[in-house]
Hints:
single chain; alpha/beta; Rossmann fold; 34% helix; 17% strand
Amino acid sequence: MAMLSICTIPPTAGHENTIIFLHGRGDTARNFMHSFQEWRDSESRSLPELFPSVRWVFPQSELRSPVRFPGARMSQWFDTWDIANLHEKEELQIEGLKESVASIRLLVDREVASLGGQREKVVLAGLSQGGATAVHTVLNVAKGLGGLMVFSGRMPFSGRTLAKMRSILDLAEVPEDDSAVRTTPVLVQHCTDDPLSRVQNGREVRDSLSSFGAQVEWREYPTGGHWFHSPHGMQDAAAWLRARVFNEN
């Protein structure tokens, strides 16, 4: 499995943590990285400015041919027949999701190694389809991570047990127990006016992960669309990182 190409925002202080952030369908790592830096709190500070010891990593998904649009090529982590209904022809999601999760696991392992093997120092995050891919990555890692953040997300293959979820992708080196899920703290944010990924999708992510034993913090905002809420969503994300990942009081 080839390593994904990445864009990075390097730490301006010593490298103490890594946050891997997955872009949405149709986007690119570079464009997403630049747009992400425009997400500001009430004092006009970005997350990289608030956390100078974090290395921010933005991997680029593969270009894939959507089955529904023959001849087209799209940057996507996995194929989807209908973004409004992931259950329709959901088998189309399997191949790309399996490949993407395997690649993200390699990237996670590389970042863990760069931090001396400390898995609790690595956080996985994603927006929209990137959030869905991040969720399935955490469901298929051998050991827990420092955290998982999902924004405007979805839950492919929802309604199944954790074991069944794992069996669909059928990846190697996946534990039989739920300890990795239980030990990875989760933040899920969603805007209720999101026109592309309805807020019910975010609630489904929350409820599914909670049913698997994850400790999930849920934040719902009235506005923001298919993006991050500003400034309150950013401030909530920063507070969550401080409390659950960086262990700051």
